[in-house]
Structures are given as structure tokens and as C-alpha cells.
Write a structure and sequence with these properties.
alpha+beta
């Protein structure tokens, strides 16, 4: 589970997003980050029984920095008001699909897949879907997947208005070929985050996502 103090720190940071406050509360930040990192370590160990390829990872391999990149953003707030971890055998900078846990009071979620892949990887995924549509739909239509995720996440700006070049408009996979990201996400209420059942919930969510991640990566690897 996640400690309530960790959620409190992130909520307070959101309302005091400046360096002087952060410096004055660095010990609280370090405690909150250690709490989150500890849960990620436990999640790697537990999910690793189903996905051996991740067992070599540590939390450090997966956690993102709390500092924001403000170079091209109108929002100059120096810090994120969330913790995020991308669990991928190749580390958090991998170009392949993986698993993600986002911790943010009132806005936490779990899931994964591949968000905004590079053009080469995106082309390979689309080709894999075109070649193996029945297998892809079997993953998306499974009861476990629908119960937890509902379906693929549809984000504004992440779906083309027309099928990409090289595919016919009447392609049976046309609806999926328009996607620019292939992710599935499930919300985690704050009450679940501080519950003793969080680890079980997270492992189940990742196990359910596993067929999608493996499908995407099989396409990229070919």
C-alpha cells in the first residue's frame, strides 16, 4: 500500500509548486519517494513471477524524475505533482511497450502499452495489427481486459481522421490503424492506494495487460 503521508505530500506540493517550498520540505519528499519506490520494488517482485523479464529491475530503473522539463512549456512549475514509474525490461527510456503506475491524489491510474511510439515502431505495430487482427481483437475483447480497462485508451489528438498511408479505408483493422498510441489505463481511487489490497490489484492489472504488451512488442521486434 501507499502511505497517506505520501499522497498528502503530493497534494501539498501541487499547491506549493516552487523551489523554496520544495527545499524546505525535502525530507518529506524523500520519504514520499522512498515509500513509492518501495511499492514499485514490491510490485516488480510480485509481477515478476508472471513476467520474469522484469525481475532484474530496481525502482531506480523505473521511476521518473519529479523535476519538470519546462523549456518548451508555458507552465513553468518546476515540479510534477505526481510520481510515475515505467516498468520495462529495457528501462524507463525503452521504445518498447511496458507497464506504468501513476500516483497522483485524485488522479492515479495503472496500465501501460505504448504511448506515442516513434514512427518506425508505430509503422511496425500497425503492420502487426493488419497481419494479425483476429489475435489483436482477441486480446482487446477478453472479459478480463474489458472488465479492468474497458478497451484501448482514446486520447484527443492520438487518433488519425483517416487510415494511414499504405492502407485502404475499408481495411478490417482501419479503426485500430488510425491510433497513434496503444495504451490501456484504469483509474485507481485514493482509497485503493492506501489499501492493503493495492499490490494484488496492481499485479492483476498488469497480468491482464500482459497479452497486449507482448503483442505490441512482438510487432516491434520483427
Amino acid at each position: 500500500m501507499i502511505q497517506k503521508s505520501t499522497l498528502k505530500f503530493l497534494a501539498t506540493l501541487k499547491n506549493n509548486n516552487n523551489k523554496p517550498w520544495f527545499d524546505a520540505n525535502r525530507k518529506a519528499y524523500e520519504a514520499a519517494r522512498a515509500d513509492y519506490a518501495g511499492f514499485i520494488e514490491a510490485l516488480i517482485a510480485a509481477f515478476g513471477k508472471s513476467e520474469p523479464s522484469i525481475t532484474h529491475l530496481t525502482a531506480k530503473d523505473c521511476l521518473f524524475r519529479i523535476n519538470r522539463d519546462v523549456r518548451f512549456s508555458k507552465d513553468k512549475s518546476p515540479y510534477k505533482s505526481n510520481f510515475g514509474a515505467y516498468i520495462n525490461p529495457e528501462g524507463k527510456k525503452s521504445l518498447k511497450a511496458g507497464y506504468y503506475l501513476h500516483l497522483e491524489p485524485g488522479g492515479s491510474f495503472i496500465g501501460g502499452g505504448l504511448w506515442q511510439p516513434m514512427p518506425a515502431e508505430l509503422a511496425k505495430i500497425r503492420q502487426e495489427i493488419d497481419y494479425n487482427l483476429p489475435e489483436f481483437e482477441k486480446v482487446l475483447h477478453s472479459k478480463k481486459f474489458r472488465d479492468i480497462y474497458g478497451g484501448l485508451t482514446v486520447e484527443e489528438g492520438q487518433v488519425l481522421s483517416r487510415v494511414p498511408k499504405g492502407y485502404e479505408p475499408d481495411n478490417p483493422a482501419a479503426a485500430y490503424l488510425k491510433y497513434k498510441s496503444f495504451t490501456a489505463l484504469a483509474n485507481l481511487p485514493d482509497t485503493e492506494l492506501t489499501s492493503a489490497s493495492l499490490l494484488t490489484t496492481a499485479v492483476k492489472a498488469f497480468q491482464t495487460l500482459q497479452p497486449l504488451v507482448r503483442f505490441l512488442n512482438s510487432g516491434i521486434s520483427e
